[in-house]
Every structure is written in C-alpha cells, then in structure tokens.
Design a protein that fits this description.
Four Helix Bundle (Hemerythrin (Met), subunit A), alpha+beta, 5-stranded antiparallel sheet, Immunoglobulin-like
C-alpha cells in the first residue's frame, strides 16, 4: 500500500491459510505478515488506526469481510514495525457452495481488497520524559490507502486440509444391516461404482459422483415405466416385475418409483455439460443409492 509514492504498508504473498469452524459456522483464516512503515520526512509520523479486508472469488462480488482490526502503532520518520496478523473471514454454507461451483473442481483463487486508515502527524515540539525528549504530535490529515492481494490455494490443500476444518460436511449416519458376501458378489459392479462415487465426491467432482450412482443402478433397472415430467409423458428405466411376487404390490410400487426417480436425476448428470449438482445433492443421492442397492442385494429374487 502506498501513500504519496511512499509504501506505508506491505503484505506478504502466499500467507498461511487454514479453516476453522463448527457445524453451521465456518471461518477462513489468513495469516499474512504485515509491515508498517513511517514517513520519509523528518519530524513527521504516521499513527495507524485500523485495517480491514474484503474477500472476493474474482467474480466481482464480495463473499465476506473480516471484522475491523484495530491498530495502535505510531511510527516516526524511517521507522517500521512488522508482525503477523490473523484475518478471519466468516463464510456461510451458501457462499462456500458458490466457491465450489466457481472453482469447477480445480484450485481456489481469491482476491483480498485491503483498506488501511491512518493519521499523518507533524511534530510540534518535544517534552522531556524519563531522561529523553518525547515528541508532541499534531494532526496534519486523516489518510487511507488500499491494495489488492491474490490468494492461490491448490485443489489438494483445499479439499484435504481446509474444507474438512470447516466441519460443514457433517451428516447424520444411518446404519445399514450387513449384507452376506455371497449376495454382495452379485452386486459387485454396483458397489464398485459407489466406491468410485465416494472418491469423486472427496475430490469435488460432484457431477461425476452422481453419474457413478447411475451406473450403480444399471443392474436393477432392466425394464421400463412411464412417468410424467412437466406435463409430458416419458419412459424411464424401471424395476423388473419379477420383484413384485417377492416384495408385494405396495413395496414393489414404492421401490420402483424410488429407483425411477433416482435414475432420472442421475441420468441428468451424464447428459449435461455443466456442474449442476452441488456437494449436498451429491451426498444425498449417494446415500439414497447406497440404501436402495443394499436393500436390493439383500432381497433380490432368484433369476427366472
């Protein structure tokens, strides 16, 4: 940051970055080294007042700003003071999802807009104090300056080190009864697809995770049924009717509709060239798919 071609504040590049938070509340913490510098002219000083930053993901809209940081540093001609500062940015779940959609499974890039206010002082005289002369300052003008700093967070650091610290991805666990190995063997491809979905989800590839759910359902959807979508009738994959005798009419109808609805959603992921599923939707679709596959593996009727 400069004032009248004099650098009064310098912020280090590539500062330490980490996340903090609890369920429902997340904070991105940036710890740059700040160096404050006094004026060049003799008998002049700067009294630094406060410091604030705004965080933007380079789309022209600010995500959040940190609470005002109070400063209490008075520097005379040629003096400087350096210290590491902690800047905390509260981030809502909605803004975090916005960052996820913008990074498109890549690195995270932020821009910091920094604002610094200080007073320019002039020495009016001095007074003896404890064996030395203490300057008497007079206010010359109120000043402010600003600067921009770029932050680059590699994708691996973001998903492995920072995102988990936000603790916003906590979910309620549902226990699914253990499935005999001989029954799981018949659904090996389905369970492999679900494992791949989990891996894609961890890496931030949410559309790919939903596509894996679609693949997991292929074994079961070997028939067709008619549904109405936006007042139009269309045929979608459906559960084979051989399940009806095993499960009963009402259970078969419920399970068939659940499979058809999920298959339609996951099929949507494979036919669009954009990221149209977010983190929460990917989690929910995986959970539903896992429950349905586990239920099917446990109750699959014998082949005819």
């Amino acid at each position: 940051m400069d004032y009248n071609e004099r650098v009064v504040c310098e912020i280090s590049h590539n500062p330490p970055i980490f996340g903090l938070g609890s369920e429902g509340y997340a904070v991105l913490v940036v710890q740059p080294r700040m160096t404050l510098r006094g004026p060049k002219a003799a008998k002049h000083g700067y009294s630094f007042k406060n410091f604030q930053c705004k965080l933007s993901p380079f789309d022209g809209v600010y995500l959040t700003s940190n609470p005002l940081v109070k400063l209490d540093n008075l520097l005379g001609a040629g003096e400087e003071f350096a210290n590491q500062v902690q800047i905390e940015f509260p981030i809502s779940r909605e803004n975090l999802e916005r960052v996820e959609s913008m990074r498109k499974s890549g690195d995270v890039r932020f821009r910091l807009d920094l604002y610094l206010s200080f007073d320019e002082l002039v020495q009016l005289g001095s007074t003896p104090e404890l064996g030395h002369e203490s300057p008497i300052w007079g206010l010359k003008r109120h000043c402010s300056t600003s600067a921009q700093v770029s932050l680059h967070i590699p994708r691996s650091d973001w998903i492995e080190r920072i995102l988990p610290q936000f603790q916003l991805d906590r979910v309620h666990l549902i226990e699914i009864p253990a499935i005999p190995l001989k029954e799981v063997a018949n659904f090996q491809a389905s369970f492999e697809a679900l494992k791949e979905a989990q891996e894609h989800h961890k890496q931030g590839f949410f559309n790919a995770a939903v596509m894996n759910c679609r693949q997991a359902l292929e074994k079961l959807m070997d028939s067709q049924m008619e549904i109405v979508v936006k007042s139009e009738k269309k045929k979608v994959p459906a559960l084979n009717e051989r399940w009806k005798r095993k499960l009963g009419e009402s259970t078969y109808r419920w399970l068939n509709e659940a499979f058809a609805a999920l298959k339609t959603v996951s099929n949507d992921a494979s036919h669009r060239n954009r990221d149209n599923f977010d983190q929460f939707e990917s989690q929910m679709i995986q959970a539903i798919t896992l429950c349905l596959i586990a239920y099917a593996a446990r109750n699959e009727p014998g082949a005819e």
